[in-house]
Amino acid sequence: MQERINKEKKLIIRQLTRKLEVINEDLQTQVKALNIIEDLEILAEDFLDFNSIEDLQQWLSNF
Q1: Which of 9, 35, 54, 56 is in the most buried spot, having the most CB atoms within 10 Å?
Q2: Which of 2, 10, 3 is nearest to 44 (CA)?
């Protein structure tokens, strides 16, 4: 299960980087800190609505 979660995290970080261009190490660390698969799945859907790094920061501030 942990391997699946790690793969999900890597995929989401790649997707966020592709959409938002630059994801700093601090934000990557916050994404990597998500350890509940449901939270990762929600982020995987919600990031489609993000238009800026600030949107990601706001989303992560809820966790």
Answers
A1: 56
A2: 10
Q: H-helix or E-strand containing 57?
A: helix 53-60
Q: What is the pTM of this model?
A: 0.89
- Gap between the Cα atoms of 12 and 10, Å rounded: 6
- Length of the chain equals 63
Q: Check if the beta carbon of residue 31 is closer than 8 Å to that of residue 16.
A: yes
Q: Amino acid identity of 16?
A: L
C-alpha 13/C-alpha 36 separation (Å) is 16
Give the pLDDT confidence of 9-58 residue by residue, as tens digits. Answer: 999 999 999 999 989 999 999 999 998 999 999 999 999 999 999 999 99
